[in-house]
Each structure stands twice: as structure tokens, then as C-alpha cells.
Design goal:
The chain is α+β, with helices and mostly antiparallel strands. About 45% of the residues lie in helices and about 20% in strands. It is built from 20 helices and 20 strands. Strands 13, 14, 15, 16, 17, 18, 19 and 20 form an eight-stranded mixed beta sheet that branches. It has a six-stranded mixed beta sheet with strand order 4-10-9-8-11-12. Strands 2-1-3 form a three-stranded antiparallel beta sheet. Helix 4 (about 75-90) crosses helix 11 and helix 16 (about 520-555) crosses helix 17 (about 560-570). The longest helix is centred in the C-terminal third of the chain and has 35 residues, at about 520-555. It starts with a helix and ends with a helix.
Length: about 600
């Protein structure tokens, strides 16, 4: 804990409620964080109170603050402008430092009798023309694939006119993915015209290209060039079909950007997809190293990203989560670029589909970085959203009670970390204190014992989970909530409810149930958790039941009571282990005489 907290609290309490910028400094006087505030006193004091509620990023920042300075401004907008300027000037350690995937990519048009359009990582071939550079390979590859498909350009390795008529046209020709240049029926001049149209399409976008091709088609029809008119008609239809139900092109005439974010544990990935002239022209990805409040994360990103690119700011920016200062950012960006900028969160329609594409791209990059699948990342994000959690749950614990009568009642605890089972954290509990068949009380006992082990400092029961899932409904949730309240712990708690076929049906909360079947990723993850905790607990219960059976069998021997029988079971575990034990080992384990041990040995050999 920061030894200067008392000083920092006193100093922050003396601040005014004016808007402004605050500068956090370390022991050497270096600025480590710059922030803006509507009311300086309220914002700065929040860092030095309720420390247990801070996320990992803020906790690390507070630990390193030695002193702070501040600058009062006339308005919140002035504070935003000043904050941005100071971040550029000082590059503070705890402000967002964007790390992108920027590299240069090109679209290559070869110079030959029958040119090809391909994707390239450089522009070193002097016998080719290039479009670009593009900062992301995604954009260039998508444009090449889309153009070749629409204009039915050959994708084979044949050389023309050298290979005219040497082989039959391939499958692509028959399924209308290629115009069949290999037949030798398309002249060099006609092919060159098609390539020019394809390049114009990539440069200007679909709307202008369709208009031009429509004019050419009508002219060809008037001149009775019906084959040419048919080919142009097919290209126009291909463009329209490509636009229908995809996210590469847009009917929107204005330029816009889409910002989507994916999170996992302490890392976040942000994708920015730019639409210009009705099509994607660029995509960039960035990683943010610390996790904190979702809206603030996106706000901080937008400030840093667009303040460095004032000439590239479009009129519309779509983001995937509400930001408290969206209107303020719009005013700031409008001042930077000289035109009105609107920032919004689309809930339906084309804008929403663009958001899903951006989030998918962010998830893909994050999956590569953290070694998790996109499904796992998206499922955890969706779980946090659905349950209203403050952060994505890194550690999830799930519990189940299994019993056969009163002799083999057990509880199982499993742990998921970052969406996958963490078997080193699994724990088994034999029910000790509950009498009779009472699942609620058994669940209370298991959770209380687990949590008290943590509170007593047992390292094997650290850390506390970000989320607890019980195999059961509202009754189980209410019972365990009493335990959490008594121990003074605030951990999100929910139940997993099964249907008649023992499949996960819904999430149980104190206020009711939340349906999950409509979300396949989340349904799959929660079903996996519920199946795993059930498997783990019932396996333990069967082991306990077998042990009890062996224990009862051993008590049939005169002079062997429950305590001695239990000692033997604990020492040798299984029936096979008991049969392999020597009289001397039996005597040592049960603390009995050699003669009695020989009697036990003979009984085991005859009856086990």
C-alpha cells in the first residue's frame, strides 16, 4: 500500500469542483498519468479512497503516485484538449500506449499481355503497377479476392497467350468464377479494358463502377454487342450480390469509421475499420495492456487515436459501447478536423453489422495474442454483459453437491481461468456438519469452508473468484448469498438451471432467471462448466461411496471399529491396495497387534 495515502487524501480534499486536468507523478517527479475531470476534487479523491474497488490498472497506478499536480480550465472541453496535449508531450506510463499491427501491403497489377491482380507485401517488381500502400493486409487481400471474383479474372498459374487452348477450361470457368481466358476467345484489348474497369473499381468503389458499367452495357446493347453487354450485366449483378449481406461494402455515401473492442483478462484488442466511398479502405488493430472501465477505455483510445490523425477523422464514428463523454469527444474532434463529427452506438441495421465485424476482427487478434479461441473470448465478454458484471470474469468457480444417502455426501469445486478448466484449482469437500438430506445447507457448508480458508490466509485457496456459479436454482443462490453476506464478501453469484433432459437451460439469479439458449457460444461454455463440475463431484462421491463400503466390510472383523477401518482405507485407498498390503503394513496403518493384523490380512484375501 502507498505510504503517502494520507498526504494524497488530504491534498485532494482541498481541490475545487472546477473542471481541469490532473497529473499524477512518481517519486522522481515524472508524470505517470494524465487525466481530465468535470470536477477535480471528485475525480482525484476517488483514487485514494475505497482502494479495494480499484481494478488492476488503477491499483498499480495508485501504488506509484508520490504527488500530483493539476491545471484548472474554463470548461470540460478545454480540459479534454489540454489532456490530449499533455499526453502527447509526456507519454505517461499509465495512459493508453497504442501498439498496432501496422505494416505496408499492396495490390499488384502485373504488366503482361494478360495482367493479373494479386496481393503483395512490397512493391519491388519493376514490371508491375501497384495500388497502396495499405496499413493492413486484410484490406488488400479482401479487395483482391472481391475484384477477381466480380470481374471473373483468372486465378490459375497459366501464362497467356502461351497456354491458349492447351487444356480444357477448369472448374472455375464452369461455375462462372473465371471468364475462361484459356479458351483464347478474349482479345488482348478486351481483357485490358476489363482490367482497367477492375482497377477503377478498386480505386473508386462500387457505386461509381456500377454507374460506368451500366453506361457501357447500354451502349453495347445499342451497338448490338450482346455478348459484351451480357458480361457487363453479369459484373453489375456480381457487385450487387457481393454487397447484399456482407460487410466489405456499404451503401452509405458518407465516410465513417467503426471501432470495436475485445477483452480477455488483462489485455484488450481494438479494431478500427475505415469505410471510404462505400467500401473498406483500411483496418488497424491495437493492443491495450490494462483492463479498466469499458466506456472509459474506448474514450481514451479515441482521443489518442484521432488526435494524431485530424485529417482522417470522418463525419461518423460508430463505437460498440456507450461512452459517457461521446458528445464532448464529438465537439473536440469537430474542432480538430473542421467538420461536424458524430459518435454513436448503433443498435440495429447496417451500422450494427459493421460493429460486429469490427469486434470479430478485434477478437481474432486478441485470440492470437493470448492463445485463446475467439469463441472463448466472445463467450466471456457476453457472460459479463448478460450478468451485468463490472469486468470480464478471469476466474470462475463452480460448485455441485453429490450424494447417495448420508454416507457419501460430497461437494465439488472446479475452476475456470480465462474460459478454460484450471485443474490445479479443483477442490473436493466431504460434507461434515449437515445432518439429513439438505442440498442448500450442504452448499452453504462447502462455500463457507472454501471462503474461510481464503480469509485464514491459505495460499491454496487464492485468489477469490470473479464469479461463482452454483449447480442449482434461486434457492441455492439465496442460501449461499447468506454466507457471502456473513463473511463480508462481494462476489457475483448465480446458479445454473437444467431442463428435464439435464441440459443447461438458464442462469438463476435472486430476482429470477436469465435465458441463454439463444447465445450459442455462451450456452456451450456454461454447459461445459456445469457438465464438468457434475463429473468432478460425482466421481468424488463414487470414490467416497466405495471407501464407505470397504470400511463397513472391514468392521465385520472382531476388534476393528470404524476408526481403524477408516485408517486402513485412507492408507491404502482401494480394494487392490488393501489386498497388496502386508500384515506388517496393516498393523502400522491401523495401530493394531501383529496377530490382529494377520487376521485382518486373511479376511481381506478371502473376501475382497
Amino acid at each position: 500500500m502507498n505510504a503517502r495515502l494520507g498526504f494524497l487524501r488530504d491534498k485532494s480534499n482541498k481541490l475545487s469542483l472546477s473542471p481541469g486536468v490532473y497529473l499524477m507523478k512518481d517519486k522522481s517527479g515524472k508524470i505517470i498519468y494524465v487525466g481530465k475531470a468535470k470536477a477535480l476534487k471528485n475525480r482525484v479523491t476517488s483514487y485514494f479512497h475505497a482502494l479495494e474497488s480499484h481494478n488492476a490498472k488503477t491499483a498499480k497506478l495508485v501504488d506509484n503516485i508520490y504527488d500530483f499536480d493539476f491545471i484548472v480550465t474554463n470548461s470540460e472541453l478545454d480540459a479534454l484538449v489540454l489532456e490530449c496535449s499533455l499526453i502527447k508531450q509526456h507519454n505517461p506510463k499509465y495512459n493508453i500506449l497504442l501498439k498496432d499491427d501496422k505494416g505496408y501491403n499492396y495490390i499488384k497489377i502485373t504488366r503482361e499481355d494478360y495482367p493479373r491482380i494479386t496481393y503483395a507485401l512490397n512493391c519491388k517488381d519493376e514490371n508491375a503497377d501497384y495500388l497502396g500502400p495499405y496499413t493492413g493486409g486484410y484490406t488488400a487481400k479482401q479487395a483482391v479476392e472481391e475484384t477477381n471474383r466480380i470481374f471473373m479474372l483468372p486465378a490459375c498459374h497459366k501464362s497467356f497467350p502461351r497456354d491458349f487452348g492447351k487444356e480444357r477450361p477448369c472448374l472455375n470457368y464452369h461455375i462462372k468464377r473465371c471468364m475462361g481466358v484459356c479458351r483464347g476467345k478474349i482479345s488482348k484489348d478486351e481483357y485490358a479494358s476489363i482490367i482497367r474497369s477492375a482497377v477503377d473499381y478498386m480505386r473508386s468503389g462500387s457505386k461509381i463502377s456500377v454507374e460506368q458499367m451500366t453506361e457501357e452495357m447500354n451502349a453495347a446493347a445499342e451497338n448490338l454487342e450482346f455478348e459484351k453487354a451480357a458480361r457487363l450485366r453479369d459484373r453489375i449483378r456480381a457487385i450487387e450480390k457481393m454487397k447484399d449481406g456482407q460487410s466489405i461494402m456499404s451503401d452509405k455515401e458518407y465516410d465513417f469509421d467503426v471501432v470495436g473492442l475485445a477483452q480477455n483478462a488483462e489485455l484488450a484488442s481494438i479494431a478500427v475499420i475505415k469505410y471510404r466511398g462505400g467500401r473498406i479502405t483500411e483496418k488497424e488493430n491495437f493492443f491495450i495492456g490494462d483492463e479498466y472501465e469499458a466506456g472509459q477505455m474506448r474514450s481514451d483510445f479515441c482521443v489518442e487515436y484521432y488526435s494524431k490523425r485530424p485529417d482522417e477523422i470522418p463525419k461518423q464514428i460508430y463505437v460498440d459501447t456507450e461512452m459517457e463523454d461521446a458528445q464532448l469527444l464529438g465537439e473536440y474532434f469537430s474542432g480538430l478536423c473542421g467538420h461536424k463529427v458524430n459518435i454513436s452506438v448503433p443498435k440495429r441495421g447496417e451500422g450494427y453489422s459493421r460493429i460486429l465485424l469490427a469486434k470479430q476482427n478485434a477478437s481474432e487478434y486478441l485470440a492470437l495474442k493470448v492463445g485463446r479461441t475467439v469463441k472463448e473470448i466472445n463467450a466471456l465478454e457476453e457472460l459479463a454483459r448478460l450478468l451485468g458484471l463490472k469486468k470480464i470474469p478471469t476466474v470462475i468457480e463452480s460448485y455441485d453437491i453429490s450424494n447417495i444417502g448420508e454416507d457419501a455426501r460430497v461437494g465439488g469445486m472446479i475452476v475456470y481461468r480465462n474460459g478454460r478448466p484450471y485443474k490445479a484449482g479443483y477442490r473436493k469437500f466431504a460434507i461434515k456438519y449437515v445432518q439429513g438430506q439438505n442440498d442448500y445447507a450442504c452448499m452453504q457448508e462447502v462455500l463457507e469452508r472454501r471462503l474461510r480458508r481464503y480469509l485464514d490466509g491459505d495460499e491454496s485457496f487464492k485468489p477469490l473468484p470473479d464469479l461463482i456459479l452454483l449447480d442449482g436454482g434461486k434457492g441455492h443462490v439465496s442460501a449461499v448469498k447468506q454466507v457471502l453476506d456473513e463473511l463480508g464478501l462481494d462476489i457475483p453469484l448465480f446458479g445454473l438451471v437444467k431442463d428435464d433432459k439435464h441440459r443447461t437451460r438458464a442462469i438463476a439469479a435472486e430476482g429470477g432467471e436469465i435465458e441463454i439458449k439463444s447465445n450459442k457460444r455462451l450456452f456451450s461454455m456454461l454447459t461445459g462448466i456445469q457438465d464438468e463440475v457434475h463429473r468432478f463431484s460425482i466421481t468424488f462421491q463414487r470414490q467416497k461411496h466405495k471407501q464407505k463400503t470397504y470400511e463397513l466390510e472391514l468392521t465385520k472383523i472382531k476388534g476393528i471399529g470404524e476408526a481403524k477401518a477408516l485408517s486402513l482405507i485412507k492408507e491404502f485407498k482401494t480394494k487392490a491396495g488393501l489386498k497388496q498390503a502386508s500384515p506388517e503394513q496393516i498393523a502400522a496403518a491401523a495401530k493394531i497387534s501383529t496377530e490382529k493384523a494377520r487376521e485382518v490380512y486373511d479376511y481381506i484375501q478371502d473376501n475382497f
